[in-house]
Amino acid sequence: MFELMGFEPELASRASAPTYLCLLDELHELAAHFGIVNVPTSVWIDEEGHVVRPPEGPGVSDAFRSMNLATREVPEREAADRKLRRRIYMDAVRDWIQNGAASRHVMTPDEVRREMRGTSERESRATACFQLGIWLARRGAREAAQRELEAAVRLQPESWRFRRQKIVLSDPALVGKLAITPEFWQAVRALGTELYYPQPKMAGMPPPLAPGQLS
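Above: the chain sequence. Below: its structure as tokens.
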């Protein structure tokens, strides 16, 4: 038995449009500041502006790596695992809302510092190439932009936001669409046993399933 992408239609049907201001980080400035390399990623920031959980995958999993690319379906086990992780993560967010700093999911400042990604010289160079590539793309210099974006990916291949933006900006027809081209799937396959979505260190979160194989 399969279920499309592991999503729950009943929950999706109850989703409502946000009534608050939503910002689009077109230049990836937030990602650069927090060391975000993939989406979706969440950061918990309290009312005083303190980070109480560093960037992490919010209840996501590598279930999509066992997907049937023709039908976009994933096996029942992987779909159930994805639902479980999403539920555990959302329950943790509710616990934080209710209990604030007393929530068992809130990290100490020292724990947050240990988990936050630092910025190496390699990553700084990758970010510079990426930002230059975006600047060139916005001015219509697509070939020059691709050279810089490719350099960013070479310098920091673990940054999926670099790779996916490079793919999208390689062809005007891809703008506004998901970057799930053959190049993307090839890079995912190349991960081997490495996780696409490293799992958060969160109470109650089970160990990740072994990555599946695309079919």
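The mean pLDDT is 90.
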